[in-house]
Amino acid sequence: MNPNRHILIIGNGIAGVTLARHIRKRDSSVKITLVSGESKYFFSRTALMYVFMGHMKFEHTQPYENFFWEKNRIDLKEGWVQSVDFDEKSLKLQSGESLFYDQLVIASGSKPNKFGWPGQDLKGVQGLYSKQDLELMEENTKEVKRAVIVGGGLIGIEMAEMLAYKKIPVTFLVRETSFWRNVLPKEESEMISKHVREHHIDLRLETELAEIIDDGNGKVKAVKTNHGEEIPCEFVGLTAGVTPNVDFLRNSKLEVNRGVVVNSKFETNIPDVYSIGDCAEFQVKPAADRKNIEQVWYTGRMHGETLALTLTGQATDYQAGVWFNSAKFLDVEYQTYGTVPADWKEEEFQSFYWEHPQKKVAFRMLMDTKGAIVGVNNFGFRLKHEFFDKAIKEKWTGQKVISSLRKANFDPEFFAPFYIEIQKAFLKEFGGDFKPEKRSFIQKLFGASV
Amino acid sequence: MKVIQKIGLFLFLIGLGVFTTIPFLGTYELNQEMVSANTKDIHQEKMLEILTPIYDQSYSSNFQFLSAFNQEFGNYNDALKAEGKWDEVIWDDYSFSLGKAALSSPVKDNPWLWMFLSIGLAVLGGLLYNLPKYKDEPEGIKNNGIFHSKMKNRGWLGMLTGSYLILFYVILYWFPAYLVNLVAMVDPLSMIFSGNPASQWFLYGFVYTLAIIVMGIRMFRKYRGNKYQQLRTASVMFFQTAFAFLIPEILVLLNQPYFDFKNIWPLDYDFFYSYQLDSFLSGGSVGMFMLIWGILLIIIGVPVFTYFFGKRWYCSWVCGCGGLAETVGDPYRQLSDKSVKSWKIERYLINGVLVLAVVMTILTIANYFSDFWLLGTVTNELHNFYGFAIGSAFAGVVGTGFYPFMGNRVWCRFGCPLAAYLGIVQRFKSRFRISTNGGQCISCGNCSTYCEMGIDVRWYAQRGQNIVRSSCVGCGVCSAVCPRGVLKLENGPEEGRINELPIIIGNDSVKINA
Ligand SMILES: Cc1cc2nc3c(=O)[nH]c(=O)nc-3n(C[C@H](O)[C@H](O)[C@H](O)COP(=O)(O)OP(=O)(O)OC[C@H]3O[C@@H](n4cnc5c(N)ncnc54)[C@H](O)[C@@H]3O)c2cc1C
Ligand code: SF4
Ligand code: SF4
User: Fold this and answer.
1) Which of A131, A273, A435, B238 has most Cβ atoms within 10 angstroms of its Cβ?
2) Start and end of every 4Fe-4S ferredoxin-type domain (chain B) (predicted)?
3) Cβ–Cβ of B507/A198 closer than 8 Å?
4) A262 has which bridge partners?
5) Tens digit of each residue's pLDDT (9 = 90 or more) over B314-367
6) For A252, what's the count of Cα atoms within 13 Å in the CB-facing half-sphere?
7) Residue A376: φ, ψ to 5°
8) Percent of chain A with pLDDT over 70
9) pLDDT tens for each residue of B24-78
10) A354: which residues sit within 8 A by CB, 6+ positions away?
11) Of A343-357, B143-157, B367-381, which gets the smallest average pLDDT?
């Protein structure tokens, strides 16, 4: 490999940026360029909602100070890539400028799904993915009496919270029988649905969007649901998932299906062209519980870490570790480790579920038929990643996990020891030869009640 | 805003308005008895003479009175200085005590009424404003709108507040004679606690303590559901009220030296000053106990507690400056600068102040025990300089006045020599760290934004590295605002505390770290 080769990365999201940083850590001579049309500097997409809600300014979402890039000799190029000439190894920006590369990495992320609803391009109708979307949303929500959000996923709930901040009444259309039921098991999903309603969000279950209605001036004035109901509104948020942002690569030599098709080394069908992050589609799923397209922050980062090894001379396959994820539903934090599907057959898994009688605190552990842990969901309290990564990898029995649950606790000091209640509930349901933990002196003294 | 909150805000503003107006009320008339009663024996004769022209004249405001007073007094001193008769110059400032004696005002006549109308209404209003906050909302911390606020994001309200605070501090430290009306107002209260009339410091301590209590109650509302925040807030409220405010006053009532048992050198920079040592050494067994207690805190208390709990045991659970920062200053915590550059400035400044305080103290002690043979009165000038530049200007004017400009921990971060000392222990020999939760960080930046010490918490969190920083005061807010449950303040074994080259778990493709 030419030590002075030019590695060009389309997209400065978490995938592209992690890749660039890790290449630089391992190789001080290659030339690295990050191209993006969205913003010159890397920012955290996950924090867009906090900018809208005034928790942060946009610059707070930038994880690295501006001097960082120059110091690490990572060139930043602002501009939209219009097309790539894979034979010439060059690409063309919208401004007309051409850039040449020796190795190309496509990390262009996603864009919001639009399923061809009538009226989906009206003014006041939008998704939320990019910085530009955020700016548009600020513009679009200036004079809104009611908003409708379509699609009950993580971005949908964030959008609902954002609108609630502006005191805009929200109607939330969700196709499933309860919130995020396609991912969460019934109990968890119902608990969160309840919490959503506590925030005065008008959650409409088993309801889909049929049509968005024009006010005659190209602006939305109402939506119609599949039940025929018309809901007047001046803003519609489309949050029914995302899809790879790869249209500029279609009709070229590159194999593109829903995303850019890659193997386990992120190689595409063209030599020296790779793809990572939200826009990459694996030919073969990285693991049984993974999807062909991985669309979260964490996987984007891991793709970047892994490809950096390959691009610096250590060819490496992407090996998915134990799955984990997290989110926050209004006030309720959620973490998950390992595999917990939305539904399962009784003969497949044993499930242990505990939920606090009043608070929005819950814990689920799935075990296989032999009693070994396969995954957990926790809500309203924090659990340690390291603990479950190990327990799941080493296939600890459910009993072992629960008996040492205190060590997995990651809640701040003086918080209520929910793990004791969980231990009691587990003993009651499954039995076991351990005793529930005792409240410590400090816990008793300061009355951290469960 | 609920109606009751609006009423609260209204009452608070009235109280603040009255408080601000009080110094301008009343008339001043000085007579000879007042001068005799309020001057030291060695100055009495001279002062009686100097002030003759203003006796029994009625002045209608503090400005007029003080300008007349300063003119006579200044003329006298200037003449001596011009002739080089330095030892005859009167260095003591009698303007405060004489002003207070000369004052007659409705406030002095009816102190309790005016206390209610000013401080009382402000406190009442503050409570009415804070208590109903977040009522009927689910538990959870809401930083909604902070950067859209004119108060909390350096808008005009913030600028105004900052300017008011700065002005208040400047007058309090250097022109207290203008505040005699306010001080006279709290006289009866001071009489109850210590049996003595109030000084400007009593007034300050009283207002300071009430501010911590009212804004502490705000903290209970804001961080409801977060036990760590609740407890540490209760703790600073307690230490301020009992240790910084009440106990020292009561000690004086019992004829013991004035002493704040939780104030530690070098924050308490005059602990080893000669007049302090004299008062300890002449204070019998209680005085001796205070001296030994103070020294034990410095050489054993600080290192041992910091080893086990990190500097937070002091900075965000006990300290009075910290107490104010964590309550009154909490709305401004997001204004601290997070850049690497300011981290650099911070290290030079704070350690510089520590060195200065240590050198000054060593010289002072050496001088004291050599019966002032070593340096004579040079240490006095050093004390004056330190007291002016660090004790008053930095800790007071900048430390608090700059809340709305640079965040609530400007003093603690850039200036406090005790924080520097605690920080060195925390960085190099402590069980405290902030652990990060594997790979869960989404780099959102909430933690860094709300770190009052300007620590870029995210920098560490996103690479799975523990946060071990000398400046961290362990306020726990980074952990509280993290939406992904990534941060945990912990005391644990020293082994593995500092992980310079972390691997973020969850990716099995990467076996070693780069
Ligand atoms: C509001 C929101 C909240 C989220 N919250 C979470 C969360 O809490 N946890 C989580 O795990 N995930 C979350 N996600 C998902 C996560 O942000 C994405 O999975 C992740 O950002 C994908 O990273 P990436 O690097 O693959 O792509 P992106 O971050 O999308 O970066 C791709 C970049 O490439 C640029 N680009 C694309 N095409 C071109 C072109 N032709 N020319 C030039 N530049 C181009 C894009 O403008 C973009 O800047 C959230 C997403 C959103 C939108
Ligand atoms: S607040 Fe939490 S998730 Fe956000 S950057 Fe900090 S540690 Fe990471
Ligand atoms: S790092 Fe966290 S605990 Fe430490 S001072 Fe900053 S916000 Fe407080």
Assistant:
1) A273
2) 432-460, 463-492
3) no
4) A282
5) 999 999 999 999 999 999 999 999 999 999 999 999 999 999 999 999 999 988
6) 21
7) -135, 155
8) 100
9) 999 999 999 999 999 999 999 999 999 999 999 999 999 999 999 999 999 999 9
10) A362, A363, A364, A421, A422, A425, A426
11) B367-381
Backbone dihedral angles phi then psi of residue A128, each to the nearest 5 degrees = -135, 105
What is the CATH code for B431-511?
3.30.70.20
Task: Say whether the ipTM exceeds 0.90.
Answer: yes
Residue-wise pLDDT for B489-509, tens only, equals 999 999 989 988 788 888 998
Return the pLDDT at A126. 98
* Domains defined for chain A, CATH in brackets: 6-111+243-311 (3.50.50.60), 125-240 (3.50.50.60), 324-445 (3.30.390.30)
Contacts made by residues A348-353, CB under 8 angstroms, sequence distance 24+: A349/A374, A350/A398, A351/A185, A352/A398, A352/A402, A352/A425, A352/A426, A352/A429, A352/A430, A353/A185, A353/A187
| First-to-final CA distance of chain A | 60
Contact in structure between A222 and A233 (CB atoms under 8 Å): yes
pLDDT in tens, A25-41: 999 999 999 999 999 99
| pTM of the predicted model over 0.90 | yes
Give the three-class secondary structure for B342: helix
> Distance (Å) from the C-alpha of residue A212 to the closest C-alpha of chain B?
31
Reading the block at residue B403, the tokens are 């809340």
Hunting for tokens 């005391």 — which residue is that? Answer: B491
Q: Where are the domains of chain B?
A: 27-103, 431-511
